[in-house]
Amino acid sequence: MQNAIQLEVYGRVQGVGFRWMTKLVADKLHITGTVANREDGSVKIIAMGPADALEKFIGAVKASPTPSGRVDRVIQTPLENVSACHKFSVVS
């Protein structure tokens, strides 16, 4: 069963390769969705996949997938009625 979540990630998450490393983790776990920088300095992630893969993905995001990044806070929101994605994309 596919689940969908939104993650709002705060900390040192822009300008450190966070989005691209998040994509690598998502691809490895077969997670689909998007990751994008936000104007307030945070990163927004929409992720879809099986519950067990999403839990691993969330853990990796909270630990910061890039060594030069730092995650201070993650707000997680479950999503419903989300259009399916076929890949994980970095949005500019």
TrEMBL record:
Enzyme Commission (EC) number: 3.6.1.7
Similarity comment text for this entry: Belongs to the acylphosphatase family.
Keyword Hydrolase: yes
Annotated catalytic residues: R19, N37
Lineage: superkingdom: Bacteria
Alphabetized UniProt keyword annotations: Hydrolase
Organism: Latilactobacillus curvatus (Lactobacillus curvatus)
Keyword Cytoplasm assigned: no
Stretches assigned to the Acylphosphatase-like domain: 4-92
Catalytic activity: an acyl phosphate + H2O = a carboxylate + phosphate + H(+)
Broad class of enzyme this protein falls into: hydrolase
SUPFAM superfamilies linked to this entry: Acylphosphatase/BLUF domain-like
InterPro entries with a match to the protein in the record: Acylphosphatase, Acylphosphatase-like_dom, Acylphosphatase-like_dom_sf, Acylphosphatase_CS
Pfam families: Acylphosphatase (PF00708)
Classification via PROSITE patterns: ACYLPHOSPHATASE_1, ACYLPHOSPHATASE_3
GO MF terms, alphabetically ordered: acylphosphatase activity
Protein name from the UniProt record: acylphosphatase
